[in-house]
Automatic annotation (TrEMBL):
Domain FAD/NAD(P)-binding: start-end pairs: 4-315
Keyword set includes Flavoprotein: yes
Transmembrane segments: 6-27
Protein known as: Dihydrolipoamide dehydrogenase
Cofactor(s), names only, from the UniProt record: FAD
Source species, domain of life: Bacteria
Family: Belongs to the class-I pyridine nucleotide-disulfide oxidoreductase family.
InterPro entries: FAD/NAD-bd_sf, FAD/NAD-binding_dom, FAD/NAD-linked_Rdtase_dimer_sf, Pyr_nuc-diS_OxRdtase, Pyr_nucl-diS_OxRdtase_dimer
């Protein structure tokens, strides 16, 4: 008999979700983690970044109080206090992700690294164990690009950024995608000089251009310097002088421009943690993007193995590096691995992604460009500015946009939101797209007044208005008005 019914490698968001299901169902479950429980979500990702962004938001609101007729002094940034808030948030949430909690569920937590020795066998911390099923949830890590001189200068990733005991004087951010722009705005609001260097023609190149421009405008207004379309040819160490007590970094760009800073943050993406797993011994096929799986997350080469989270590379779908996929992936594994339900597969049609800047940018489903690339014809695009929303005007934040991507048949394919706290509105659009509800369901939704979410109902209502006010409808009303 195998030692375990299910062996889970990795105690990040996806691994914990799978382990809790398996343990709750009474299966003999091993949860193997070589680092800190909670993975990147708790220790280096969503939790500390949102805590830092919240502190930065408070500083920004103090500076913007003048729009309400309030005069407040420039906020004094206590970096030690900010850091205590970030670390304290992690500490308060740690018990929910800790080994004791999962041991209480009947899960055996093994605090060690693991690697495959056979298709049905692992070694963890020098201990050999066999399994009926294994789930690889080892996650991903920040990419360190191959740029000359990088090995000779100090650099940061999100795994080390939140440990800084002093604020950066001038933070150079290499990469203008989600992590880069979030951390750029947070540090700028906390009093740091910030420069983003991005080889792409514009920051947030994957996001809808209309919405990304709103984030770009906000960053520029807060003093962030943008070097878009600029590749780094090499890095050099900046020696300390009378103005700078510690060594810094110089980024030399393709046009010869030299950009100097005190700290360098690498934010060019993430790569799956495949090294050390010895996948070949487990007969587990992989690509540079992760463990190759079918659409139900089952390995294409070893039927005993599944992969979840950012390390999974589903065939025909591709990997996704979002923490909020953990519960969806765990549900797919439960249905396909535990209940053996045929036809189980991932569905990313309503997948949201969030850029947690201020204003926030949320995309649910397809952008306009993605819909066109997917072959959708006769697309209709409908925009509704936040300047038409009563709540936004009352709060002095009229910048923003709702953008609906609608098929020729009137089905919602995607929704983009640029607004304060836009992430809190994403669920409505996810439900609409995921359940294939008609756009009229959004237009008829009754929401508390005034709320930012009303912008979506107004957008849908305005889109449907021409149909409601068509000549045919007017003729019908003309006939009905004669009835007693």
């Amino acid at each position: 008999m195998p030692d375990f019914d299910v062996a889970v490698i990795g105690a990040g968001a996806a691994g914990l979700a799978v382990a809790s299901i398996c343990g709750g169902l009474g299966l003999r479950t091993a949860l193997i983690e070589r680092g800190r429980m909670g993975g990147d979500r708790l220790n280096h990702g969503g939790v500390p970044s949102r805590a830092l962004l919240a502190a930065a938001q408070a500083a920004a609101e103090a500076r913007r109080a003048g729009r309400f007729g309030l005069r407040l002094p420039e906020p004094e940034i206590d970096w030690a206090g900010v850091r205590a808030h970030v670390q304290g948030t992690i500490a308060r949430l740690a018990p929910d992700h800790g080994a004791a909690r999962y041991r209480g569920m009947g899960v055996e937590v093994i605090e060690a690294s693991a690697h495959f020795t056979d298709p049905d066998r692992l070694e963890a911390g020098g201990r050999g164990l066999t399994f009926r099923r294994a789930v690889i949830a080892a996650g991903s890590s920040p990419i360190v690009p191959d740029i000359p001189g990088l090995d000779g200068v100090p650099w940061l990733t999100t795994e080390t950024l939140f440990d800084l005991e002093e604020p950066p004087g001038h933070l150079l951010v290499l990469g203008g995608d989600t992590i880069g722009v979030e951390m750029a705005q947070a540090h700028a609001r906390l009093g740091c000089l910030v420069t983003i260097i991005d080889p792409a023609p514009r920051i947030l190149a994957r996001e809808d251009e209309d919405l990304a421009e709103g984030v770009r405008t906000a960053l520029l207004a807060e003093g962030v310097t943008l070097r878009e379309g600029a590749a780094v040819t090499r890095f050099e160490q900046l020696e300390p002088d009378s103005r700078q007590a510690t060594a810094g970094v110089v980024a030399v760009l393709t046009d010869g421009t030299r950009v100097a800073g005190t700290h360098l943050l690498l934010a060019v993406g993430r790569a799956p943690r495949l090294a050390g797993l010895d996948l070949q011994a487990g007969n587990i096929a992989a690509t540079p993007q992760g463990v190759r799986t079918r659409a139900n997350l089952r390995s294409v080469s070893n039927p005993r193995v599944w992969a979840v989270g950012s390390i999974a590379d589903p065939r025909g779908i591709g990997p996704r590096g979002f923490t909020h996929l953990a519960s969806q992936h765990a549900g797919v594994v439960a249905r396909s691995m535990l209940f053996r339900l045929p036809g189980t597969r991932l569905d990313y049609a309503a997948l949201p992604r969030l850029v947690a800047t201020d204003p926030e940018l949320v995309q649910v489903g397809l952008t306009e460009a993605e819909a066109r690339a997917a072959g959708h014809r006769d697309l209709r695009i409908h925009r509704w500015p936040l300047s038409e929303n009563d709540r936004a005007l009352a709060e002095g934040r009229p910048e923003g946009l709702v953008k609906l991507v609608i098929s020729g048949r009137g089905r919602l394919l995607g929704a983009g939101l640029l607004a304060p706290r836009a992430g809190e509105m994403a669920g409505t659009y996810g439900l609409l797209i995921g359940r294939r509800l008609p756009l009229s369901a959004l237009a008829s939704l009754v929401l508390p007044y005034p709320s930012l979410a009303e912008a979506g109902t107004r957008a849908a209502g305005e889109f449907l208005a021409p149909k409601f006010l068509s000549p045919f409808t007017k003729r019908v009303i003309g006939l009905l008005k004669r009835l007693p």
